[in-house]
Amino acid sequence: MLEQYLQHIQEGYLFSDKTISVNLDSFLNGSNKKLLIVGVLGSGKTSLGSYLAKKYKVAFFSDESGMIKALQSPQRMIIEGAQIASLYKMKPEVRKLILNQSMIIIGLSAIKAGLRADKRDSTLPGKAKNWKDIYYHSRENLLYWQKAVKFFRRDVEKISGFKIKEYKMPTFKAVFY
What is the CATH number that goes with domain 2-166? Predict the structure, then answer.
């Protein structure tokens, strides 16, 4: 039981990883056409992506169904989605395409992200519906998305030549659906 608890902590259930940028300068100077924003549900991907797209006057894409087409597009854009990590894990044929882009990997714990997701999805903005829903969002993040993002992050951090830096999240107003 204690071993299982410690594993949850190690996998980001309680503690957040640092948010990192990977080759961000290449997007900013225009040599990379895409900036990928990856993180678990409720980590702030859409809010950050919207903010940066306005700031840099580029297209913003967050449609799960057209992710591969967006990655292949010659258009300069910011693409966000937890599914980027899932695509990377499940479809080895798109790994090179993903790794050739600039990215921001948001390192938020499953519990914190679960609270944010519940806040976003709640009918009363800013009010959690109940602990069961928060637990559900946190559990979903831990069981699937956190593992996919961790797998992706570990691979990215192993590649030599990538310019990996800690990324300080800007202050902006969150986007709620």
Answer: 3.40.50
